[in-house]
Structure formats: structure tokens, C-alpha cells
Amino acid sequence: MPLRFDKLGVIIAGLALYGASLAPFATFRANRIVQGEAKSVLEALPPSLAYFLLALVILAAGVALLKTASLLRMSAAFAVLVALGMLIGIAAGHLTPPENTYARVSPASGFWVVVFAFSLLLADGLTRLNPGPIVRVLFLTAVLALAGGMLVAGGWAGLSMLKEYASRADIFWTEAGRHVTLALGSLAAATVVGLPLGILCHRVESLRAGVLNVLNAIQTIPSIALFGILIAPLGWIAAHVPGAAAVGIRGIGVAPAFVALFLYSLLPVVANTVVGLAGVPRDANDAARGVGMTDWQRLARIEFPLAFPVILTGIRIVLVQNIGLATIAALIGGGGFGVFVFQGIGQTAMDLVLLGAVPTVVLAFAAAIILDALIEMTLPTRNHGSAA
Which of 66, 259, 303, 325 is the most exposed place for a label (fewest CB within 10 A)? Predict the structure, then answer.
């Protein structure tokens, strides 16, 4: 029987073999800001572990290259990703001289290329299996638990990014709280305002175009520019309105960041509310009128439940968007993970940049998966079966 090659698997195998054999696996620096020295897999790891990793990558690349069962593809990808996670921590200890607190070791391009290749293979296997929303959330939970276990066990303590964290542990969690508060708080405010506004735009057609055009115009303003525009009016309010400064309203800081994120959040919430309500079948409304329901009863019992998946899609867009945009808030003193990103840029310390960027990406990714699952679970008809 002739071998059958998988088209996506050809790309994955090529990336994996390049990353493992040709690109550097880790970067060693004498201190946090000097130019790094690239190390291959064979240089970064003890020989036995280096050859184990190369053999595992070659084997998994073969699984990706051929048309194989989805579960086998996922297992091969997961095995490589777990091995990479463990071995990059070992590489940090292997490359760092004893008692040297200044040296820094970080993953290099080859590591990230292999991670990307097998993450793509894992995603491909998941897509082919087509698991239900609860299974996807459980899988995400397992991956996060595994990563959390590595962090707690100290498996990555020797990596440069974790050394940056160790010297900023207290402030890291303070800024993490601010980041989450900004993202979720602005989403909550936009939902409270946007849902009634969307319902009003749906019911009063003459308002719809004007409101959506204004919100569209706000959406086109660059985030840094909008933060800057809000400094003057909020500063004036803080100076002239009694009690405003006491509740946290100032020209710089959290207030302008919160208002900007709130304004950016309105368009997806309002637009998806209008679209969701407009998509309610006419027959459902006619039947509700036929049994004597009032307008508000129809809205609460018929229209809103049917439109909810579309509205929830808008909320998903807002949350993922706000988690990313909250990073920019650090430029005006709003805090969040952007504090580390911009400090790292200013100090030419890439690992400090990653200390802010990686949690932001993980938060956005997790939020997207969880809300996608909720959206699927609220659909009137859904297929949660599995496909090989």
C-alpha cells in the first residue's frame, strides 16, 4: 500500500526538522542586556537528552508527514511539546555556570519554530476530532495545569524570563490584577450600556445608522491617540468636579485607559445585539404575538434567547480585544502587563518584554476558547460529536 502524505503535515514536518536541527535551540547571555550566543540542541542539552529530543522530533515529524489517525497526531504533538517544555528548563541549568546569578538563558528561534509546528499539529488533530465545547475547555484546563505544575515545581526557574519574574513577583501580580480589572471592567460597562443601546437601535430604526456610524468612527481612532485625547477632559473633571479625584478620575492612570477600552467595546456589543435581534425568525415573533405576549415579554422570552449566541460572539470579540489593548494602558500610567513590555523595550531586555507579552497572549487565548465553547453551547442546534 503506497504511503499517503498529508499536505499540512509536509509543512509541519519541514518546520519541525528545521527548528530542531538547523536553528538555535537556546540563547546564552553573560547578563540580561548583552548580545546573546546561540546554542544548538546538541550544545544546549546533555548529549543523551539532546539525541532523545532529536529522535522524538523526527518520529513525530514522520507522524505529521503521513496521513495518520487524528488521535495519533495529537499524541505525537503533545509528547513533543511536553518534552520541549521540560528540556528548555534543563538547558537553562546546563548552560548557566555554577553560582552565576548574572547569566541569562532563553529559548531561541529553533525552540519557538518547533513549538509552533507541533502546536499546529495538535490544533489540526483537535479540529479533525471535532470535540465538543466541554472537552475543549477540559483540554485547555489540562494544558494550563501542566504549565502551572512546571512553574510551581521550578522546572523553568533557570530561564531568563522567570528570573525577571523572580525579581518582580509582587509587582507582577499587582499589574496582573490591574490588567484583568481593566479588561473585564470595561467589558462589563460596555455590556451594561451596549445591550440596551443595541435593543433601542433595533426597535427604533431611525437611530440605528447614526449610533453605529459614531461607534464606527470611535473604532477607527488609534488606541494611543484615544488615550491621549482623553487625558485633557478627564484631567479637567478631576480638577473641577468635587469628589472626582477621590474616586480615581484623573488625566492619566486607570481612568483614561478604562474609558478608552469602554468606548472601543461598544461597537461589537451594540452591532451584534442589533444583528442578533434582527435575525430572530419572524414566525417566532408572530407566534408570540398570537398567544398574547407583550413587546417586553417577546424580548425577554423569545428574541433575546434566540439572539444570545450572536450577542455572546460580540462579547467574545470585546474581551479578546480588551485583553490585548489593556497592554497599551501602561503608556499613560494605567498599569497592566504593558508595564513590563515597555520597561523591557526601554532597557533592551527582551525577556522582560516576554514577561508582559506571554501572559497577555495566554489570557486572550484562554478567553477565546472558553467563550467559543459557551457560544457553541448556547446555539439552538449544535453537533458535539467527534470525527476521526
Answer: 66
